[in-house]
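Quick question about two entries, pasted in order.
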Amino acid sequence: MDTEDEKYLQVVTFMLGEEEFAFEISHVKEVIRLPVMTKVPKAKDFIEGVINLRGNVIPIIDLRKRFHFESHFDPRTTRIIILEIESIMVGGIVDAVLETKTLESSCIEPPPTAVMGGMESEYIYGVAKLEDRLISLLNIDKLLDFDRPTLKDR
């Protein structure tokens, strides 16, 4: 028997380039403007640095670099989404945060692996089909696996 929670998924939607993505809202702690970051020597190229957020040192991932988009920051719209999973906090730089949205589970389908491009499709666990757009749902566990090789590393 389906519970009310299983029928719906709450997400925070955001843009990377021209594409719309989402994180489950249960992992989102807050959204902040782009602060000054401290670089981390010898870190992966997609780790932009670390920030001190109210006493917590948080690594910041440039999601454009992580997904092989050209990286750029527009201070008017660029934001960091602070995420928490299993007591680990990390920030993800996005081009713009759009909205919080409640999706019906019936509109979510598995990602089309042929279109998403092989290994990189592992980062996407579903695609929400809405009337006027598609939203790729990101798998935070895979995103935080910093040891996973990217296509660029291969």
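Here is the second entry:
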Amino acid sequence: MGYDHLGFNVKNFLASRDFYIRLLAPLDIGVVHETADWAMFGENGRGLLWIGSYGAPPGPIHFAFKARDRAAVHAFHAAGIEAGGRDNGAPGPRPQYHPGYYAAFITDPDGHNVEAVVHEHG
């Protein structure tokens, strides 16, 4: 079972919103609702991720999105770099987690570690 939703504070709402629009597009995740100071990202109308300017300083967190396949992991990583994120782990196998773990990691503008992962079972 995946997570229901996640919300966190960002320093610059508009810059972070634009970053996540580009980063999550390869995973078919987009904005499903938005106000002047927060946005909800998801798929099929279901919210998965909320970002906003909630008044508290942001602190770094780690979270992972499920990817369809390796190609989506690669597209996620490329989109993250192009959107201004920093490489925090190029696409590749992560056997230390389990033999079928294939992932990439991007650090977003607020220092959050964002992952796309596909669990391949042979």
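Reply: Residues 6-52+61-119 form a domain with the 2,3-Dihydroxybiphenyl 1,2-Dioxygenase; domain 1 fold (CATH 3.10.180.10). The chain is about 20% helix and 40% strand. Hope that helps.
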